[in-house]
Amino acid sequence: MNDPLALRRTIPSAARLSRWIAPDGWAHRRFDWIADAPVGRLLFQTGRADVIEKYLEVFAHLVARGWSVTAFDWRGQGGSGRLLADPHIGHADDFAVLVADLAAFWRAWRAEEPAAGPAVLLGHSMGGHLALRGVVEGAVDPDALILVAPMLGLRLPLGPWLGRAIVRTMAATGLRERPIWQSRERPGLHTRQGNLTHDGDRYDDERFWYERQPALELGPPSWGWLAAALRSIDGLARNSRPAGLTLPVLMLVAEADRLVDARAALAVAERLHARTVTFGREAAHELLRETDAVRRRALAAIDGFLGGIAA
Q1: Contact 127, 135 (CB under 8 A)
Q2: What is the pTM for the complete model shown?
Q3: Superfamily of the domain at 4-310
């Protein structure tokens, strides 16, 4: 399939959507696309409010280079079971539940094809945070780790101190399941598209999929989600184990990111001794869904890293 638009808006015939049930019975939506002549396997985990379909173009790139790709929608979003009566609020009481889901899926996935080459874990944004936390806590054991704009710090509108105080107060006053804003679009000076990508066509891919499958769409996070995210970020920052990790790590960081704290990510990258690639004002948060120039550079970095792992 050579048409980029069709590639992004069609589930490939060679891929398969299925269900994975967590140990506690929670249903998750799963995606698999097996390469014709696999050099390895890659588990790709998305960010908050993301869906598998947003990354079909990236999956096609990886599969063409011999990497079989698997992904699942996180608990509480996409095609997986939601956590609140209002399915459009993105909620979490504790990120430990998401790490446990990742750990259980990873064990089952690794057992499916134990001799299929190296197994790589790639996480974007919240998925990057959870992937790193899973590695640090010994919940997953990838042969290599790729973190794309990882959520290792948050850009709070009122600054770190006042912002955290407000989050703690709202989460502790019975409002933890309430959305932190009411509409899908985040209020303020920056539009949602401006926060995510400079590429309008790729941004519109979301709307394409949500119009066809409205149940996939997720709106703003809850105060509880934000409080849980900050607790998880703080816990990871206090953990001393990242400095002792020996697995290969690649981190891609958008220095002008308006959603996650790029400085915090770069500090963690130094502790990990990670291979780091940075992007300037040409790039927003979704590096793999940016304009072609940004995407090509990001994918080239991933290709080079994976080539070394496969070798």
Answers
A1: no
A2: 0.95
A3: Alpha/Beta hydrolase fold, catalytic domain (3.40.50.1820)
DSSP letters along 70-100, please? Answer: EEEPPTTSTTSPPSSSSTTSB--S-THHHHH
Per-domain residue ranges for the chain? Answer: 4-310
Write out pLDDT tens, residues 275-295: 999 999 999 999 999 999 999
> What are the residue ranges of helices labelled H in 151-284?
160-172, 192-196, 200-212, 223-238, 262-272
Nearest to 175 by CA among 126, 227, 235: 227
| Chain centroid, CA 207 distance in Å | 19
Tell me the per-residue pLDDT of 62-115, one tens digit each, with 9 for 90 and over: 999 999 999 999 999 999 999 999 999 999 999 999 999 999 999 999 999 877
Give the CA diameter of the chain.
Answer: 55
Cα distance from N-terminal residue to C-terminal residue, the chain = 28
Token look-up 């407000």 returns 166
Q: Is 282 helix (H, G, I), strand (E, B) or coil?
A: coil
In the block, residue with structure tokens 């995407």: 295
